[in-house]
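Known limitations

Structure tokens in this collection are predictions and should be treated as such. Users comparing against experimental data should check residue numbering before alignment. To illustrate the layout, the record for Sulfurtransferase-like selenium metabolism protein YedF is reproduced below. The input appears on top and the generated tokens appear beneath it.
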Amino acid sequence: MSKLDVRGMACPLPVVQVKRALEAAQGEELHVLLDDGAPRENVKRFAQGRGYQVLEEKLEDGFAFTITGAGAATAPREAAPAAAAGPTVMLIGTDRMGDGAEELGRLLMKNFIITLLDLNDLPDRIFFVNSGVLLAAEGSEVIEALEELGNRGVEVLSCGICLDFYKKKEHLAAGGVTNMFTIAESMLKARSVVRL
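Generated tokens:
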């Protein structure tokens, strides 16, 4: 069994370190010590998303994961053309649309997100970064629309570091928390990336 301690590491290092350890372990069981909150959520989502089983144990100073299974991390890398068949990813980096008056920009962004509900083709994932995370936090006028998008299969994810910066992590009201590793990986594997 391999062991890894990622406690105290900032996002996205816990996920990156676990990814590397899983690749090196080549199917061997991996024992990981990690902090609660975003590191725990991100590592668990990462491992399970790649076909690994995650056994979780609460500790006094965080969590311990035992990650088992072959997963997909040891599978051969996909050829570049496969990315063309990948998901559609939307990256929203602000709480307003366009340049100019802030009030108008916020109204445009609100209308854009609500309008997505009337479209047949939805993105597979929406990532909120920088001030875009404010759209998924309590007090936002688009929470119901984001929840409905989630109910329709759109994965709604906000950057953990950004939520921390704006002191909104405890006030996230729609979707989940993610990290830069997942955002970068999703963008590179996407069929198309829509950036706002």
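For this record: The chain is about 35% helix and 20% strand. The chain has two domains: 2-68, 80-195. Please report discrepancies through the issue tracker.
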